[in-house]
Amino acid sequence: MVDINCDMGESYSIYHCGDDEGLMPWVTVANVACGFHASDPRVMARTVALAERHGVKVGAHPSLPDREGFGRREMTLDREELTAGVVYQIGALAGFLRAHDMELNHVKVHGSLYGMSARDPEVAAAIADAADVFGAPLVGMVGTAHEQVWGDRPAGFVAEYYADLDYRDDGSLIITREHEAFDPVRSAERALRAVTEGKATSENGKELTVRADSVCVHSDTPNAVELARAVHDALKPHLSS
């Protein structure tokens, strides 16, 4: 069975990013921002409450401390500092989950921290140290340091496929500062192939081997709700309850 995960709660104060209410019916897992790249206490509280109403599982979406750059600029932190920052963020979300009698479902790091941990085993290990405090599975990509470091963790490793990002020929993601709209029908077809065949196609047409325990859609993709609905409909027979 497969989940559809979405990065949510990425607003701040009166500033809004993404249609969380429109997206929540079409996903099974919410990755909730924890304050370092987006969100604040009120936004976290509202997002957790919204997920509870829709029966959506909630995981932490920690980031580098880069609110101005939306967590999409790389930074240099030592292992202890990085682990402490991720523990801090997960702990904040865990408090809101406790208020709703909900469990922390997983941890999925955001933006540049995701890319750095995919390349660098030391960064991946620092994140694992933080997730281990909470006994939480980590979400990442096969064929990277994610799988190398997190693959045999007792808490678990969840491999994901991206429905609204392109892949390079080496299997790495093309992450842009601002997401562009994707064709929902094409994205849904590709997501279904990733789930059922374990295959994807790079931007240049190269066949890639992937694993899709979970399929990601981003809330800041311009047509995110339409895309999430199409992916949900395509994967419905395979979705986790």
TrEMBL record:
GO MF terms listed in the record are: 5-oxoprolinase (ATP-hydrolyzing) activity
Superkingdom of origin: Bacteria
Keywords assigned: Hydrolase
**What Pfam families does this protein's entry cite?**
LamB_YcsF (PF03746)
Which EC class heads this enzyme's classification? hydrolase
Record's protein name: 5-oxoprolinase subunit PxpA
EC number(s) stated in the UniProt entry for this protein: 3.5.2.9
Residues that span the membrane, as ranges: none
Query: NCBIfam families per the record?
Result: PRK05406.1-3, PRK05406.1-5
From what organism does this protein derive? Pseudonocardia alni subsp. carboxydivorans
Gene symbol here is pxpA
